[in-house]
């Protein structure tokens, strides 16, 4: 499980990553450990590693092209924004398992993007656009899946949720989903009009569809050059090289755990600096591991996810 945890961190500082689970469980260590273990079991059963490896390849293209939800821009507190357009949710051509995989891929991408230095927070502001949304766009199954995933497997990632231009028919749906939300999450929900969005997100960071100045998010299929590029990156790496990278990554995690335990016990000669060095090794090895475990996404092509490992093969749109 330790190595799966290492992959789930995507090179983030281990202390920062684990702290979210402690905060989510009110600083009760046993509860936080149980939450962390359940998260790792879910990742294994849901196939998160395979989702990252294949990225958008097997997903439902018509759903992705609707751009129902996506991350881009920042709010006035430096959080990344997640725009959700309810009226683009079409259950008539929905492939449920692929839709759920897209939600997970989007969450994984956001967790990696949030490690970039321009973001002042590792949480996100969600903007749920309910204009022109009718009862046909309400999907309790998809909503419950998203809330369950967000609260239990990606804790402490929501900074604020803006519900924009909610029609009267949404009140019934809100009463249905409200009990699914942790009270702490409920307190982060704010109902606003379209005009009030600018109080939280500057118009320069709001998409044009919501009256802002930022270009609307679009989905672009990966060009042949990108597909060939990732294939080439992987094929040029021998099995020996792959094994060496994996071995170094695992050794780094073992070293971090051993150093942390020694530091906690007050072992002579082991200070927090030794832990930081071990953490840096994990981050460095994860970068080397990237082409083996992940593939580029539309966030790379949009210039939102700046990933050194894929810089040479991604074409910006």
From TrEMBL:
Instruction: Extract the Pfam families matched here.
Output: CRAL_TRIO (PF00650), CRAL_TRIO_N (PF03765)
Lineage, top-rank taxon, reads: Eukaryota
Q: Which SMART domains does its entry note?
A: CRAL_TRIO_N, SEC14
Cross-referenced InterPro entries, in alphabetical order?
A: CRAL-TRIO_dom, CRAL-TRIO_dom_sf, CRAL/TRIO_N_dom, CRAL/TRIO_N_dom_sf, PITP/CRAL-TRIO
Report the residue ranges that make up the CRAL-TRIO domain in this protein. 71-218
The residues forming a coiled coil are: none
PANTHER family found in the cross-reference section: PHOSPHATIDYLINOSITOL TRANSFER PROTEIN CSR1 (PTHR46590:SF1), PHOSPHATIDYLINOSITOL TRANSFER PROTEIN CSR1-RELATED (PTHR46590)
- What this protein is called in its record is CRAL-TRIO domain-containing protein
